[in-house]
Amino acid sequence: MNYFLGIDVGTTGCKAILVDENGELIAKGVEEYPLYTPRPNWAEQDPSDWWQGTQQAIKKTLDSVSIDRKAIVGIGLTGQMHGSVFLNNKGEVIRPAILWCDQRTAKECEEITQIVGREKMMRINGNPVLAGFTAPKIYWLKNNEPDHYKRIDKILLPKDYIRFCLTGEFATDVSDASGTSLFDVPRRQWSDEIISDLKLNRNWFPDCFESPEITGYLKREIAQLFGMNDQVIVVAGGGDNAAGAIGTGIVKSGLVSASIGTSGVVFAFSDEVKIDMKGRVHTFCHAVPGKWHVMGVMLAAGGSFRWLRDVLGTEEKNLAALLDKDAYEILTEEAAQVEPGGEGLIFLPYLTGERTPHADPYARGVFFGLTLKHRKNEIVRAVMEGVTFGMRDSFEIIREMGIPIGEVMAIGGGAKSPLWRKIQADIYQVPLYQVRVDEGPAFGAALLAAVGKGVFPNVEQACQKAVKVMDKVYPDSQKGIRYNEIYQIYKDLYPALKPFYKRISNISW
Fold first, then answer.
1. pLDDT for 136-157, tens place per residue?
2. Is 372 in contact with 343 (CB distance < 8 Å)?
3. Which residues form the catalytic set?
């Protein structure tokens, strides 16, 4: 039996998992590391913490099982996207990595957009220039730390720094590179045109591979450290969203994942490149070779439900402690007593602004239709439905782009609730499947390694073997009619309220 490691270089820590050649999870290990915020809206990490965390996560994983470590034949990498690791000509880190959630680069986003042109950027990269992306970070270094900028020899994404530590090779993959604002997404290669427009050095950027392709082998000293052989392949891997989609089975036309975690992500497979020139959704290369994905992101999905629990759920939290249950479970049991529509109560889930479809940092949450008859259980139901309407916004844009939606894979914390799965099926009006994806992107990375080693002929067959469906929910057409009526009101509320969002933000609180 051969084994594969999947490594996820996350924001809070590194996760390593071990799977066998049938795609069965054998072991896992996690090692946390710090995130630094030296100034407001800044977010940085030390790449050496990632490397130490990776080593510890691998060690914990392998120490927890009794297998022949020489039978580990492949490693797949994934991790947080967009982060910038700047290396000098000795391969040394110049400064702490600037992360995906860092917001210091608003000025640089405007500067890059002006230089390249918004229409050209959308046509080539498929996305507007955003503060979290990589190119603005490079320009920020140029504008604010010129001595560091002059020392740049290579720029790597987070998982690719770990690849360098494991193999000594500089490489990336098409899905992760898509989020740099420097990549030609339709042609699946670095954009010489954008790089030239920005007067950056093309040699700074590593060779780019399709996700299952082999980029190198474990260095001998690293293999010896873990008791493995030095013929272990390391494949290109993918960004966390694309690798997570592999682990969810989103690898053919008609498949979409709906993830309700802190944020909400709708991830749709596409056989061909499709770009929303309005910039409401992202278009990236998929980790499936020669394929793409379109992704919508709402900022406060599960985050809205957590806010509700913390503000109105004290009674449920106390009861949950007594009954050894989850407070969310008790809240959803209360919401299940309410008919669809929450007795006319609609929730706009813009608690932290919004990204898809409105891209409005000033947007705020709203309860609309509140009356004296409304009770807590109707408020809970309204929050669950409002978040799902926000997810549906992405579905509507994806359909508008001509991308088919046949089946939806529900993942994240929201997928654990039978009621929320049913609400999603009824609002999206498509069959909803719950799949086993507790290990998320790391599982997808391990499957990519298995494909790279030749255990599976392609990514699609790897997913067919390894991805397990746990539950199926089918939509109720009558409830769908009711939800369609409410959704039309939901959609009309944002433009009606938009002028007031910025006005209230201008008041000092």
1. 999 999 999 999 999 999 999 9
2. no
3. 240
Sequence-distant (6+) residues with CB within 8 A of 496 are none
- Asked if 257 and 406 count as a contact pair (C-beta separation under 8 A), the reply is no
Whichever domain contains 84, its CATH number is 3.30.420.40
Do the annotations mark residue 81 as ligand-binding? yes
How many separate domains does the chain show?
A: 1
Cα separation of 284 and 244, whole Å? Answer: 14
pLDDT in tens, 12-66: 899 999 999 999 999 999 999 999 999 888 999 999 999 999 999 999 999 999 9
506 inside domain:
no
Residue 283 lies in a domain: no
Distances (CA, A) of 364 to 348, 358, 393, 484, 508: 8, 12, 17, 23, 16
Q: d(Cα 353, Cα 132) in Å, to the nearest integer?
A: 16
Task: For Cα atoms 430, 436, 438, give the angle at the middle one, nearest 5 degrees.
Answer: 120
| Residue 126 forms part of a structural domain | yes
Q: How far apart are CA 11 and CA 418, in angstroms?
A: 29
Q: Is the pTM of this model over 0.85?
A: yes
